[in-house]
Amino acid sequence: MRTVMANLWHPLGGVSIADVGEKRFVFQFYCEMDFDRVVKGAPWTFNNHLLVFHHLKQGEDPLEVDLLYTEFWVQIYNPPHGFFTEAIAKQFGDFIGVFVDYDVKAIMAGLRNYMWIRVKAVNILFSVWQTRT
């Protein structure tokens, strides 16, 4: 996994990946720009398993951190013309989960019929997909 993820992410400053057990790994990025790009680019998977990120604070034990939620970019199609605002993006995001961010460039362009919203959602202990009958 170490080699595959490092090759996929191409970190400019490098990355160290340590296996701490219990299916948990610590990724240490040596450049903040690399960290931001990888985390904001999530979700990532490895062998069809979702990688859930948590920014460890000083003294925090990686084996004690609850890894229950992850962030996703959600695309909202065909909102009415007046809905391309930050306030509406926040409402959509909070309806889906917890609003994190939105793609200002997509909204400012005004040429698209969709908006990108980043939300913290999805309790990974439960299935994301629901079957429609």
UniProtKB/TrEMBL annotation:
Species: Gossypium harknessii
Residue span, DUF4283 domain: 1-63
InterPro entries found in the cross-reference section: At4g02000-like, DUF4283
Protein name: DUF4283 domain-containing protein
Taxonomic superkingdom: Eukaryota
Ranges that cross the membrane: none
